[in-house]
Amino acid sequence: MISLPATRTALVLIDLQKGITGLPLAPTPGAAIVERSKELAVRFRNASAPVILVNVAFAPDFADAVHAVVDRSFSPPGGFAPDWAELVDGLAEPTDLRITKRQWGAFYGTDLDLQLRRRGITTIVFGGIATNLGVESTARAAHEHGYNVVLATDVMSTFTEEMQRFAYEEIFPRLGRVTTSEAIALDA
């Protein structure tokens, strides 16, 4: 078990939105990640610890998207559906904070850091999709910003088991503590 002070810990869930949770994911389907994330979010809310829901969205003309030259760009098969950026049904509660990002990571270009610091948060528990893209990018930035990072592996998934394994075994242990949602205890 990892015991965390509820008053100084936040749950940040990345990209649990309609256009991403339905993609082919491994090792765990999006629907299972959403259900586990909902359960973890309830525990945080019951402990009066902040729940922050991050989605990725763009202007209709994509003028606010990153336009760097890359060898492999990402766009969903068939393009973006009209509800692509909406959080999955039943995830958000009125007390949750919402952050919209325009790139993989949720720190750059958003007020995530400001919202965490104003609430006295020193530890962030992460979950979401995709493990090695949005979650990892945001966890790296959290580490660089001096936050304690906890990575709940059972509330994350990505596109291949190999990508998942590499993140868990090689990257995450260098950023923080790797555990499961069931092994996280919030102390009053």
Automatic annotation (TrEMBL):
GO molecular function: hydrolase activity
Keyword flag Mitochondrion: no
Classification lineage: Bacteria, Pseudomonadati, Pseudomonadota, Alphaproteobacteria, Acetobacterales
Superkingdom per UniProt: Bacteria
Pfam family, one: Isochorismatase
Organism the protein comes from: Gluconobacter thailandicus
Residue span, Isochorismatase-like domain: 9-182
Keywords per UniProt: Hydrolase
Entry-linked SUPFAM superfamilies: Isochorismatase-like hydrolases
UniProt-recorded name of the protein: Hydrolase
CDD domains (alphabetical): cysteine_hydrolases
